[in-house]
Predict the structure.
Amino acid sequence: MSLSQSPAWQRFRAAALSADRNGSELRIIDAPGLRLDLSAQAGSDELREAGAALLAQQDFDAARAALFDGGPANWTEQRPAWHTALRSPEPPAMVARAVLGERERLRQFVREADAAGRYRCVLHLGIGGSDWGPRLVTRALRHEGLRREVRFASNVDSHAVADAMSRLDPHDTLVIVASKSFTTTEPLANAEVAMNWLREAGVADPVRQVVAITANVEAALDLGISPDRIFQMWDWVGGRYSLWSAIGLPIALALGADTFDRLLAGAAAMDEHFRHAPLAANAPAQMALAGVANRSVLGYDSLVIAPYDSRLYHIVPWAQQLEMESLGKVATRDGSPCGVPTGPAVWGMSGTDCQHTFFQWLHQDAAGAPVDFILCEQPDHAYACHHELLIANCLAQRAALLRGKTYEEALAETSAVESDPARARLLARHRVHPGGRPSSLIVLPRLDAYTLGALLALYEHKVFTQGVLWGINPFDQWGVEFGKTLAKNIIKELDACAPQAPSQDPSTRYWIDAIARRG
């Protein structure tokens, strides 16, 4: 039976369609490091009961236990998805030695570099999950004081790595090559550029300024990197969930090992909340239920993330990968289609820039989209009046999306300034806002390592719960792997190292031939 045909889904769907969407009930959940306001999401006692029944039907308790206990949460690849172990103060016994050992190796590396005054700069080469997490955290927390300058290069377009290396001193730069498989095209291609950059600058032993972070230790050794400079990941850590592993090395180098530890602590606290809080007060689970109602019942195709804190600029692409790589699927455990729309497109921008970019569409387009507003109560600057403006804009945009404006209200406004009744009626039509548009408000007391860790773990567990609700695996990425395979074949054809593939479509074949001839 598909999800859409199940009794629990039918009940959930009916409850979501009939639920209040005007924000008449205050719904705030206290969680570690933040408060979650779901008042502007569809809500009713019946919907909450139906959501609990749907989670029970989908074996949520067992799935959550497998996540934390090392069961095959990644069931298409038959392995755990054990990123929670990476940030636990007491990891499960099966992996405790490995996790704590690598955690201490990371700390020791940072301590020794600090004591010796080594590496004024760090060049981090990764992509996707090996890039967005460290990039997000170092940008978000640099107000706490940067110990080293960190540059990131992810794209295989060499403009990216050339720009990242510009004005760095190659004699005082540590190069980090981060790749779980150590076969990913982008970091390895950029590593070759960086190694040549070190050699051309006369660095006596370039490999001693290179660190690898990978699950494929042998491949890193083959590149000439010494064992003491290889930090290990494991196949039970998904790339987009790997921030908490040694992938966080650039965070510790830039902000200090203690800051990285506080980031882990915030995430671990959210883990405990997700694991033990009652369902009605469980922030990730309730966010997930709201997201499923919005996507699969109310028909919203996308989700907007609007952090009203410019330091969280990179949370949008980080969340794009987390949500869209995890939930962009339709096949359930038995291979059959889910039967309802799954993973929304995720996009956004930091406020208040977003108000002058796409909020017009959110307010009055026929489709619209749910919004996650993120706000910090206390700033880390001295301009209190500016922070009040920021808060006021965030709350006002959210209220306008929820409240809307009727034709009668708009007509009263236009009639007050237009003497011509016909023109007043015409203008009123342009000022109608449908309202009832869903949003969540996530409020951090202030932006620090602990609250940021909690915020990121909140989103991770929300995505996991949505995967359970839809019956899809949030820990694989077969679409990504398919594209990688095709790219490798095309690279061979461009280099004339392989015969022409007979299966190329006409356009792809045209451009391979045209570009190969030009070369």
